Amino acid sequence: MQKFDKLTGIAAPLNILNVDTDMIIPKQFLKTIKRSGLGANLFDEMRFTRDGAEIPDFVLNRAPYRDSQIIVAGDNFGCGSSREHAPWALLDYGIRCVISTSFADIFYNNCFKNGILPVIVTADERDALMADAQDTENPELSVDLVAQKIRRPNGVEISFEIDPFRKKCLLEGLDDIGLTMEKGGSIDSFEAARADDKPWL
Fold first, then answer.
1. Where are the domains of the chain?
2. Collapsed DSSP state (helix, strand, coil) of residue 66
3. What is the rounded distance in angstroms from the CA atom of residue 159 to the CA atom of residue 140?
4. What rounded mean pLDDT belongs to the chain?
5. What is the DSSP letter of 61?
6. Beta bridge partners of 118
């Protein structure tokens, strides 16, 4: 998993409440178990018409937001079904951080397992960051996971809380497999001892 420590990037304002996982990646794209290629269909029904043409009003179809790495979103982002394809699609598009006042629990957990930082802020802080993102002349935000701060274009910093274990996993690039591999020595010792003690297994 890609490490996350500091990120400075274009923030896309997605001022929509209850963006669910079917909006993030519609169900017809869930046939794959690969994590790559899903970014092309991120927010598909909002980005494209039925014949595949771009919908010009959608934020990711407009400059400078085509290159967004951060999303500032409305309340309850990632609600709906528990598909892990949702963070896969965000990450494949290039989104490394989503900022909102609240997230659905399963989506929130899945973000950490895929190298995406979900940041919870207050409504007032979200509104200020949304206004920053809507400024097409300078929509960049800086997110510092180590310091747990978001720096706005005007220099004002917003602090955020994060579980220490999840923070460690993002900083070190550890998903569930990576965490298991950290115990490789202990696993090898256990298997060797079991082979000696119970060779019939």
1. 6-172
2. helix
3. 17
4. 92
5. G
6. 98
